């Protein structure tokens, strides 16, 4: 029951004389409803892979599918539509609009999505229903990240791709953000991939995929975390 599948994905960056192989023949599957953690040293290709899955970047070689849709065959316009309709992104930095309240930041997305939840519902899910009229500057880093997560899920994406969502947070606040992502995966069934160094997430994950030098070196399947049926 694959949501994403890659076959021999390679990514080469060439800048002048310098040639960097960021991904070197990656085959992986992200299963429907699962929470997958991507681990590995800095520079091992995790972000590059997440960006290719989310349609933000192109593979140099190999093939990528989102369910039956082959992303590696789409033109830019179709890839943009895929991103808009199916993918929520969370990055290390929150990119909230400073002059808008939490609710208004989320409403930027819900106003244009075809089948959104309300901003209030999205903020409730991340535990910020009581702060929806606060502005970003009045919120802690962890709360701002949870607003960014509410914004990402409000359009009800099938997948949520998170690149170091706790990278700018202390570990206690980071755990609250990871717990919010875990709750979204459990309650909404959103297929989720998270790049993180936070050890706490590993017991929450269905699968932990470890990268090194642009390759997958191990995949652990957590049998104690029930897989959705
Ligand atoms: P990770 O997310 O595991 O830290 P990345 O996917 O960001 O790894 O990077 C993998 C490799 O690709 C690194 O060597 C990095 O320097 C290189 N790289 C990433 N993005 C670019 C880019 N836009 N141009 C050139 N090299 C890049
Ligand atoms: P063009 O710009 O050449 O008109 P389209 O944007 O219509 O191309 O997309 C090309 C094909 O990809 C379409 O036939 C469509 O079925 C498929 N496609 C594009 N985006 C999606 C998507 N988000 N979900 C499912 N299929 C898509």
Automatic annotation (TrEMBL):
<keyword id="KW-0997">Cell inner membrane</keyword>
<keyword id="KW-0813">Transport</keyword>
<feature type="domain" description="ABC transporter">
    <location>
        <begin position="4"/>
        <end position="229"/>
    </location>
</feature>
<dbReference type="GO" id="GO:0005524">
    <property type="term" value="F:ATP binding"/>
</dbReference>
<dbReference type="InterPro" id="IPR017911">
    <property type="entry name" value="MacB-like_ATP-bd"/>
</dbReference>
<protein>
    <submittedName>
        <fullName>ATP-binding protein</fullName>
    </submittedName>
</protein>
<dbReference type="InterPro" id="IPR003593">
    <property type="entry name" value="AAA+_ATPase"/>
</dbReference>
<comment type="similarity">
    <text>Belongs to the ABC transporter superfamily. Macrolide exporter (TC 3.A.1.122) family.</text>
</comment>
<dbReference type="GO" id="GO:0016887">
    <property type="term" value="F:ATP hydrolysis activity"/>
</dbReference>
<dbReference type="Pfam" id="PF00005">
    <property type="entry name" value="ABC_tran"/>
</dbReference>
<dbReference type="InterPro" id="IPR027417">
    <property type="entry name" value="P-loop_NTPase"/>
</dbReference>
<keyword id="KW-0472">Membrane</keyword>
<keyword id="KW-1003">Cell membrane</keyword>
<keyword id="KW-0067">ATP-binding</keyword>
<dbReference type="InterPro" id="IPR003439">
    <property type="entry name" value="ABC_transporter-like_ATP-bd"/>
</dbReference>
<dbReference type="InterPro" id="IPR017871">
    <property type="entry name" value="ABC_transporter-like_CS"/>
</dbReference>
<dbReference type="GO" id="GO:0022857">
    <property type="term" value="F:transmembrane transporter activity"/>
</dbReference>
<keyword id="KW-0547">Nucleotide-binding</keyword>
<dbReference type="GO" id="GO:0098796">
    <property type="term" value="C:membrane protein complex"/>
</dbReference>
């Amino acid at each position: 029951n694959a949501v994403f599948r890659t076959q021999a994905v390679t990514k080469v960056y060439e800048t002048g004389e310098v040639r960097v192989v960021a991904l070197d023949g990656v085959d992986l599957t992200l299963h429907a409803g699962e929470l997958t953690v991507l681990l590995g040293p800095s520079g091992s290709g995790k972000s590059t892979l997440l960006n290719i899955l989310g349609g933000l970047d192109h593979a140099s070689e190999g093939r990528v599918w989102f369910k039956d849709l082959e992303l590696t065959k789409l033109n830019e316009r179709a890839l943009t539509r895929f991103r808009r309709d199916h993918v929520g992104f969370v990055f290390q930095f929150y990119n909230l609009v400073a002059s808008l309240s939490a609710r208004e930041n989320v409403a930027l997305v819900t106003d244009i999505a075809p089948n959104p939840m309300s901003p209030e519902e999205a903020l409730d899910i991340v535990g910020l229903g009581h702060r929806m009229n606060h502005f970003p500057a009045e919120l802690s880093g962890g709360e701002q990240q949870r607003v960014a997560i509410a914004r990402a899920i409000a359009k009800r994406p099938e997948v949520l791709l998170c690149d170091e969502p706790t990278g700018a947070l202390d570990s206690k606040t980071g755990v609250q953000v990871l717990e919010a992502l875990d709750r979204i995966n459990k309650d909404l069934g959103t297929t989720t991939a998270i790049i993180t160094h936070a050890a706490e997430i590993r017991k929450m994950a269905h699968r932990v995929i470890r990268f090194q030098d642009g390759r997958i070196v191990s995949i652990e399947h957590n049998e104690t975390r029930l897989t959705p049926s």
